[in-house]
């Protein structure tokens, strides 16, 4: 395969992603029923992944400290999708808009770290983050014109912002 062929990503299979979303929504709805938690389910396809959101929910029990419960629920939901489709899922689960708020917070953290590195000329290591969180920080650092790398081993993998 040529380099040009490798760099071309196939278009996402929207029908398959919608099916993932349906399976995930049914699974999450079942969990909400078992836990006797009221909430509505929204489904969408963003880029190359299905997104299922629980909206209209009160409290943060399904998010947990630092999003730990949400990450666990997302993994369980991905497993449920995999069990039915036989395909690995990149589905994203959100509860009460947590991921959108976290995305805005992490974008600010990445931009601030990039500013610090530009001023000091020294690399800056950030706290440990999930892959979702690291991706957002890497994007914010790149938007600020700098480079960043992930270092360490899961679950303590972190971003290091590097000078230009």
From TrEMBL:
Pfam families: R3H. Residues 100-164 form the R3H domain. CDD domains: R3H_jag. This is Protein jag. It comes from Microtetraspora malaysiensis. The lineage of its organism: Bacteria, Bacillati, Actinomycetota, Actinomycetes, Streptosporangiales.
């Amino acid at each position: 395969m040529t380099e040009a062929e490798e760099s071309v990503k196939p278009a996402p299979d929207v029908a398959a992603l919608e099916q993932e979303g349906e399976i995930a929504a049914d699974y999450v709805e079942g969990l909400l029923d078992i836990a006797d938690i009221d909430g509505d389910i929204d489904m969408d396809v963003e880029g190359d992944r299905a997104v299922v959101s629980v909206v209209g929910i009160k409290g943060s029990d399904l998010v947990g400290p630092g999003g730990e419960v949400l990450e666990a629920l997302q993994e369980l939901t991905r497993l449920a999708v995999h069990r039915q489709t036989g395909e690995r899922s990149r589905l994203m689960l959100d509860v009460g808009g947590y991921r959108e708020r976290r995305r805005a917070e992490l974008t600010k953290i990445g931009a601030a770290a990039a500013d610090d590195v530009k001023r000091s000329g020294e690399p800056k290591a950030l706290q440990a983050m999930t892959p979702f969180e690291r991706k957002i920080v890497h994007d914010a650092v790149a938007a600020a014109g700098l480079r960043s790398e992930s270092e360490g081993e899961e679950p303590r993998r972190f971003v290091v912002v590097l000078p230009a």
